[in-house]
Write a structure and sequence with these properties.
methyltransferase, 7 strands, 7-stranded mixed β-sheet, tRNA_(Gua-N-7)_MeTrfase_Trmb, single chain, alpha/beta, S-adenosyl-L-methionine, globular, Rossmann fold, SAM-dependent_MTases_sf
Length: 203
């Protein structure tokens, strides 16, 4: 699988190609990023459902990355590229306004208050996401941890460059259209926690 990963890996040591869509061997209409994709179930589902879209997935854990690489290879998908390091580094590497969507799904909640500063949703990373998103593009966040949902809402509400798209309660209580579910979501339901699904639009 190491050879397959090398073919899929984004090389941050070189400048991003112009246009960024040439990361992919076949033409793509837009590009989406998934941060912390776990075993890759959602990433692979999305890439299979939208072959004209390019996907970049970030996952620092070796076992999860290996599982995803094997599944991508088995599915024969050519519209996925991968990064096994820090998502912040990848966001810094991307050209401005180059992404149509960023997904942050069930990130590590760092539930203890003294660890909240480690949460991925923070002012610096939101600056990075805002820079990489095109105007009108979406930032999607899902979590089953109430404190992290509240934290995310507060951080995004304080920013003039994002607007929360929810118009009614079901907009954050129900999964998004086409949502395949994830193993983290299944675990949340088993343990009696109800996830929230937030969508923010870049102004």
């Amino acid at each position: 699988m190491a050879g397959v990963y090398r073919q899929l890996a984004v090389d941050l040591a070189t400048p991003p190609p112009a246009p960024l869509a040439t990361l992919f061997p076949a033409p793509v209409d837009d590009i989406r990023l998934e941060i912390g994709f776990g075993g890759g179930e959602h990433l692979i589902h999305e890439a299979s459902a939208a072959p004209a879209t390019g996907f970049i997935g970030v996952e620092p854990f070796i076992e999860a990355m290996a599982k995803a690489v094997a599944a991508i290879d088995l599915a024969g998908l050519t519209n996925i590229r991968l990064h096994d390091g820090d998502a912040a580094d990848l966001l810094d590497w991307l050209p401005p306004a180059s992404l149509a969507r960023v997904d942050l799904l069930y990130p590590d909640p760092w539930p203890k208050r003294r660890h909240w500063k480690r949460r991925f949703v923070n002012p610096d990373n939101l600056d990075r996401i805002a820079r990489a998103l095109a105007p009108g593009a979406l930032f999607r966040f899902a979590s089953d941890i109430d404190t992290y949902v509240d934290w995310t809402l507060r951080h995004l509400a304080a920013r003039p460059d994002f607007v929360w798209t929810a118009e009614r309660a079901d907009d954050w209580r129900k999964p998004w259209a086409g949502w395949p579910g994830t193993r983290y979501e299944a675990k949340a339901y088993r343990e009696g926690r109800t996830p929230a699904y937030l969508v923010f639009r870049k102004r």
